[in-house]
Amino acid sequence: MARLFNVTGFYTGCNVIESLLQSTLECLYHQTCIDKLQSYLLSSPIPVLALVDSPSLSRYPKTTTVNNLLSNLMTERLGWSYSYTQYYQACSPEYCSYQTTADNTKINTIYIVFLMFFILGGPLSVLKLLISALTKIIVCCVRKSPRQIVPEASIIYT
């Protein structure tokens, strides 16, 4: 297969996923590359502008691999800051308590019974009973079916 043109930063190989993870998005920073891709992939190109390579806009340089972008969940920065001390002071609980309900105990009991059933071979026991019953039904039906009479051929020895 003839190569139409090189896509900057894109790798090909036997395993598509591995190739994609090692590739970069450099082509998206060049308008000519985007235009070439659109001319080969789309019958009617849509207006797409190239990305701007500016360290002030993104912490990722244009040579960052797709694998690195995915490893960082494509986030530019995380803005979370938690202060559990401030949270506790804002809530200022007077006391903490918890209460269990009877429904929860019933659910736990049922869960334990089913768990023991499966651990002790419940499904296997049920399967043995079903196969045994099915076998008896089949044998019973076969015995009740009319038997074919096969004529015996007499052999006369002379």
* Helix segment tally: 6
> Structural class given helices, strands, pairing?
mainly alpha
Q: Please give the share of residues in helix.
A: 40-55%
- Quaternary structure type: single chain
**H-E string:** HHHHHH
Average residue-wise pLDDT = 80
Low-confidence stretches: none
| Number of E-type strands | 0
In whole angstroms, the N-to-C terminal distance is 83 Å
**Which radius of gyration do the C-alpha atoms yield?**
37 Å
Described by the principal axes of the CA atoms, the overall outline is: flat
Share of residues in strands? under 5%
Major sheet summary line: none
Short description:
With 158 residues, the chain is mainly alpha-helical. The protein contains 6 helices and no strands. Among the domains are: 16-71, no CATH class; 103-144.
